[in-house]
Amino acid sequence: MQHQTRIAGRCAWLREAIAPGEIDAPALEGEQRADVCIVGGGYAGMWTALEIKRRAPATDVAIVEADICGGGASGRNSGMVLSQWAKFAALENFCGTADAIRLGHLFGNSAGDLDAFCRAQGIEAEFRRDGWIWGASCERHVGSWNGILAALAKHNLAPFTPMSAEEIAARTGSRSFLAGIFDPTAATVHPGKLARGLRRVALQAGIRIYENSPMVRLESRPSPLVHTPAGRIAAQRVVLTLNAWSTLLPQLRPAILVIASDDAVTAPRPDLIERAGYKAKPLISDSQVFVTGFRTTGDHRLNAGVTGGIIGYGSLGGARFEGRSPREDAIRAALRRCHPTLADLPFADSWYGPIDRTRSGLPLFGALPRSPDIFYGYGFSGNGIATTPIAGRILASLALGQKDEWSGCGLVRPVERWLPPEPIRYIGAHLVRAAIRRQDALAHQGRMPGLLVRSLAALAPGGITSSRIARN
Predict the structure, then answer these.
(1) Structural domain tally of the chain?
(2) Please, is 112 exposed, middle or buried when counting C-beta atoms within 10 Å of its C-beta (0-12, 13-18, 19+)?
(3) Global pTM value
(4) Is the residue at 161 inside a domain?
(5) Helix (H/G/I), strand (E/B), else coil: 433
């Protein structure tokens, strides 16, 4: 039985993107079969399905989604399309220099490729290529990017342009940033409209979608079985693109820390935004470990966000992260620090959602241990819009059994078992979060934290601008 797609209770992006009267795809019922079953209907799952159909059109592909396509992190993020050049050192560590450079360029081209795809498919995702400023809002953060610039310069790569405080102020109207670097390839999109557009394209491509069908059990065997409350589907290959809900599987849980990011958006105020000098409208983030950032939307709203929110305990189960953000005060404080002229704009809405952060800050892909027909792709660490199209190519190669530059790249690797079991994991994560918040706060006071705080903060997983070089 199909139902009208629920709009109430969802974040602003999805409320705006779901058409009135839209109908959910049917739930999975009874016995079904597919060549490839993808569990998870977010960006990664839909890009994977589309790539499989592009390469092998006769392949029967089914997507099984617990909610609606895009209902998780994909439809509720900050809409930032960022390259992975900030994580080049980690890319080089996993992939080697030549492949890191290749992947760096591919991730760097993601924004342009996404724009071309949306134009070709008629997806009105409010794409805007205004670039990205990674800045420092206190003296201690100036030069946070120097290590990355040096690593890139060794290979004659210069994707970033240094910016002075005056240049940042001229583009943004903010005089809170002392210095920064600029990536002209970065862009912003409307996350909900992109997610729902991908869903439409997937259905038009003949991909079967089952919504409101959470996976309750996964049988690893020849032709693995995915069980849902009302049915099951057997497939030659299963691809798991569960994002933060990868913690449902004990085999995947040790590789990610699930921590929420929080966003808020104002009503359209083109007059105030223009008066504040936010003219070129690049998206901006600071250099805190728990990054804060802001950008404008296509209809002249201000969207601001902070990371480092609620920490997940064990498996997320059926958590949907609905309702207004509990951290509006933190978002307001971040705006007051980074763009005080805009800090008092009232928030029309706010929301929050989970981020699946890996130790390295890079996603990982592969086959489950002792399950050669079940593949995983997760750990996008807050940068999924730019990385999931590449993830789709990697996972399509794995699912189709193709030996190529995608299935053989260094991001295909075993699960990183760096997190302890619960409750140690949960308690430890809170200690690390407290240390990071303390370190970020002291930096703005020009003070150095003590050894304990520094040691705990150093355990933080990679994020949007940070990465950790580590192998199992």
Answers:
(1) 1
(2) middle
(3) 0.96
(4) yes
(5) helix
